[in-house]
Structure formats: structure tokens, C-alpha cells
Amino acid sequence: MDGTLPAATTQRSTLQDLGEALAEALAAGGAGLRLDLQPICAAATLDPVGYEGLLRWEHPELGPISPRETLAAADAVGRGVALDAWVLVQGFRMRAGWPRSGPYLALNVSVSGIVSGHAAPMVKAAIEATGVDPRGLSLELPEAAVTRDLVAARGVAASLRDLGISIALDDFGGTHGSARVLRDIPFAAVKLDPALTAGVEHQDAGAERSRALVAAVVEMAHALGAVTVAEAVETAGQMRALRDARCDALQGWLLGRPGAFQP
User: Fold this and answer.
1) Taking the model in full, what pTM does it have?
2) Within a 10 A sphere around the Cβ of 163, how many other Cβ atoms?
3) What is the pLDDT of residues 179-237, one digit of tens each?
4) What contacts 165, CB < 8 A, 6 or more positions away?
5) Nearest by Cα to 92 from 32, 141, 135, 49
6) Which residues are in coiled coils (predicted)?
7) What residues form DSSP beta bridges with 36?
């Protein structure tokens, strides 16, 4: 999520302008939009086991627009569902070209896609359009959306599993209600929010408590049949601490920045 945005574009009128430009880009087949890949590596070997597809938008005049602002612009003009559909089709088409036994591809499902009920039908349509093997896919549901509407999220998760797709809980530990979410939805993977793992590499009492908390979360996820992925790993110290906590996989700039990869 390393796109930048001029401060003026945060104004409401400019957000509308951004949304209109994004709608034009989508109408033109996604002009200026792309998916960068960031490796997700096994903690033990650091070999890539998957890649996360990250949305990037290059505005023709303003340059790179942050993913957060891109999503807000899409919602401002009612094009959130269309943007989700573009991401799914592009990502699934990409994964369809990889070896079937190769790394999995993880994509994000937006908050609006979950609460509106559009996520599962869009995924089904994208699978049919691309012919991708769903067993090579993982869809990440943000914890904020899941806790906001647990009933809707439970339905989306069940529908995605019925399609043969693995589901992951993204940003775990970033909001309240996390334990209930893990109890109610059988996620295949739990991605630890950077706020949960921040400072685990330090040598002080606070860091010791952080490491104990991360280890407890990992143990809980394992007991529920889920693997754990730590996000935003940027230092060797973090990597060592997360390995000691028995985290299964790591993702972050230390292992690879988002870009073009060919598994």
C-alpha cells in the first residue's frame, strides 16, 4: 500500500473527480489500473507459498493514487462493485496462467462487497470467465468488515468455500470482536494485523508481552485449524520473533516489495 496522493485530493469535491476518472478507467477496461504481487513466504524456509495481489492505480494527471483513496473514490461514484469485479477477473486470469501446483494467489474482498452481498456472485462469475482452478485462490476478508456484519460475512464465507476457494481473515487484531469471528467462521488462514506484531523484536517488557500475545494468537489459530500469516515484516528481528512464535508465513518488505513476479 505504498501509493502516494497529493493532499488536495482528500477534499470531497476532488474525491468525486477521482471517482469519475476511475469510472472512465473501468469503462476503458481498467486503463491505468494494475495488480502488483507481494510474496507470502513460509516462515521456516522463506520460499514463496503465495502472492497477494495489490491494487494500484496510476492517474493520468496526478500519478499514483493510494489504494485506500482508490477504494473511496470508487464508492463515491457507486463503482465499488465494478472495481471489485475488475480486480477479481484480472487476478483470476493471472492465476489461471500459473502452474496448478504453484503458489496460491490472495486477493482482497472489499467491505462493500461483503455487506452488499455482491462478493460471492462476482467471484463465481470471475471463475467462469477465466476458467481458473479455485483451489489456487485465497480471498481475504477484512476483519473490520466481518465484525461490522458478522451474519453477512458468515454467508459470504460459506458461499466462497462452496466454490472451492480458501478464505482468510485479514488484519486480525485490528478491531474488537476478533475471537468471536474466529469462533463463528472457519477461516483457513488468519493474517495478523501489524498493530498486533509491532515491536516484537525489541528487548523490553512491552515487547515480551507482545511476543507472548502473538504466540497465544498463533496457538489459538492453529487449534482452530488455521494457518497464520504475519503482515508488514520489515526487519530481521521481527522475522526471528515471529518464527519463534510459530507463525506459519511472513509477508512484508523484508521478503519482497510489491511488483511483478512470475511464479
Assistant:
1) 0.90
2) 13
3) 889 999 999 999 999 999 999 999 999 899 999 999 999 999 999 999 999 999 999 99
4) 123, 134, 137, 138, 139
5) 135
6) none
7) 54
